[in-house]
Specification:
about 525 residues; D-amino Acid Aminotransferase, Chain A, domain 1; 17 helices; alpha+beta; 20 strands; globular
Length: about 525
């Protein structure tokens, strides 16, 4: 369809887009009609085509080290092969090392590696550029044909995507299959401005601030109004509507402001000086230019002596059923504390149930808007003498950094999270916790190949033990050699054991790589 549009005028292109939207709508309707039949029977013949494309702002995405390897996070969906008649087609920008595939397949409970391999098709674009994977696939008609030929006749099939944009919709139409995800027409519901509006409509607490800002003058006006409303305010946060992982954020400090000074004039003069971007490669001018393209918000910087950054992950299935999938306590880092570094699961018992209820309330509102699939809600929580106060910050209408760790836990233990108790229990009724991170990074890890990592993990028993349902699992393994970073999920019977597994992992890797001349690194 995208190829046809290059040979047509704008009127024809508009007509093609309308047709694409209609076809996609029908695909999604049929998916809903067949959902119960397909998903309630683990032995039914079905195919899941995994598109782990980070179809996000490419300029911001390019600032994340090894971002192309973030496609590997959805290798957790290889665990779907535990269903004996399920096929998985997994497409990536660059080929995934067979050692990494083998690492995941050995985790499969009750399925031999040989049986799983017969039902797995790995395809690649052989394109390491920073453009999104979906864009690369759409540019390769022969690859599209290989995907179609890999589909099993008579199988129920759907796409599993990290994000769903107009490009994923085009791909779905060309492959003639639905997506278990949100219609891209609803994508704007998850931007920073609309998130604030939806939170407000639900009665959730939000930071004092302003949305639907378009330019530098709007930012100055908003900062001025915040300071006038709260003279003691020390900082404010500026966020691009479609930034992610904190990369579209910047922090403005009011330090140095004197009461007798005209606020707006002072803010206008200090903004280019005091604005601290999370993305240090962006200049002030480039940040403002990007902001003017995306639009965004300004809100107060919430501070306190005891602060937490919990999140709630929810799912709305094609039948309209809402579920709280998980809660996490996120650990934020970077110079401004705006970058996601890792998370504990589940969130603290002090508030896991409370934020879960807020997530379920929000899911009901989004369901009425037509939202489908997984999404997350980020909070900032501050404890005072009266208890915890939760500020809703943003909605992410896509999978996120806490999706794959939870999917691994669920696939391996066949358990479930109960939002009414804030606890996760396995199929045998045991409680499990984990600590996860996408940012285990050390310059000494450079040059460590996937086989090296597997050898080190095997020797030091840094593995997941199916008998105890505890242990360590790695992801982002492909990023290790070039970027010195990888991801890890550490599962334990207590939060302390999960953290102990993580500390053990870091200690082992640091010891093995402290001298690059040593055997093993």
């Amino acid at each position: 369809m995208a190829e046809l549009s290059t040979h047509t005028n704008s009127t024809d292109s508009s007509a093609l887009l309308i047709d694409e939207k209609k076809i996609f709508s029908l695909l999604q309707q049929n998916f809903a009609a067949n959902y119960s039949y397909v998903f309630n029977d683990r032995k039914i013949q079905k195919t899941i085509v995994v598109i782990p494309s980070l179809t996000l702002d490419q300029e911001i995405l390019s600032k994340i080290k090894g971002h192309i390897h973030y496609e590997e996070r959805l290798l957790c969906l290889l665990m779907l092969l535990r269903m004996p008649r399920t096929h998985v087609i997994f497409i990536t920008s660059m080929p995934v090392d067979p050692v990494i595939i083998d690492y995941y397949l050995h985790l499969l409970p009750g399925i031999t590696r040989h049986h799983a391999l017969q039902r797995l098709t790995m395809l690649s674009c052989y394109d390491a550029s920073s453009r999104s994977l979906t864009e690369k696939i759409l540019e390769r008609p022969r690859l599209l044909q290989r995907i179609k030929k890999s589909l099993q006749p008579g199988h129920a099939a759907h796409l599993a995507c990290f994000t769903v944009t107009s490009m994923e919709r085009s791909l779905a139409v060309q492959l003639n299959m639905p997506i278990y995800g949100c219609d891209p027409e609803l994508e704007s519901l998850g931007n920073k401005s609309n998130s604030r509006k939806i939170f407000r409509s639900c009665g959730l607490r939000i930071p004092d601030g302003f949305e639907d800002l378009q330019n530098e003058n709007d930012i100055v006006d908003a900062l001025t109004a915040l300071k006038e409303h709260n003279p003691s305010l020390r900082k404010a946060v500026i966020k691009m509507n479609n930034g992610f992982s904190g990369e579209g954020n910047a922090v403005f400090s009011f330090d140095g402001f004197e009461e007798q000074t005209h606020i707006r004039d002072w803010v206008s003069g200090q903004l280019p000086i005091e604005l601290s971007m999370v993305d240090k490669d962006l200049t002030y001018k480039s940040y403002i230019n990007k902001f003017e393209i995306m639009g965004g918000i300004v809100e107060e910087f919430i501070d306190g002596n005891i602060i937490a950054s919990p999140s709630v992950q929810c799912r709305i299935n094609p039948l309209g059923e809402c579920k709280v999938v998980s809660t996490h306590d996120q650990w934020m880092g970077g110079s401004s504390g705006q970058v996601f570094m890792g998370a504990d699961f589940p969130a603290s018992q002090d508030y896991a149930v409370e934020i879960g209820q807020a997530g379920l309330l929000l899911a009901g509102v989004l369901r009425q808007q037509g939202v489908l699939g997984r999404f997350g809600i980020d909070f900032l929580s501050v404890k005072d003498n009266s208890g915890w106060n939760h500020y809703a910050l943003e909605i992410n209408l896509r999978k996120g950094g806490t999706t794959h760790p939870y999917l691994l836990l669920q696939f391996l233990t066949d358990g479930d999270y109960n939002h009414e108790t804030g606890m996760y229990t396995t199929a045998s009724g045991q409680t499990r916790y984990y600590f996860c991170s996408d940012n285990l990074e050390n310059k000494n890890y450079h040059g460590l190949t996937p086989p090296d990592l597997i050898d080190i993990a095997t020797y030091h028993e840094l593995q997941y033990d199916g008998s105890s349902q505890e242990g360590v699992m790695f992801h982002l393994i492909g990023a290790l050699s070039q970027y010195g970073k990888l991801g890890v999920v550490c599962i334990g019977s207590t939060p302390e054991r999960a953290r102990k597994f993580y500390e053990q992992t870091v200690n082992v890797l640091d010891l093995e790589c402290q001298n690059k001349n040593d055997f093993g690194c």
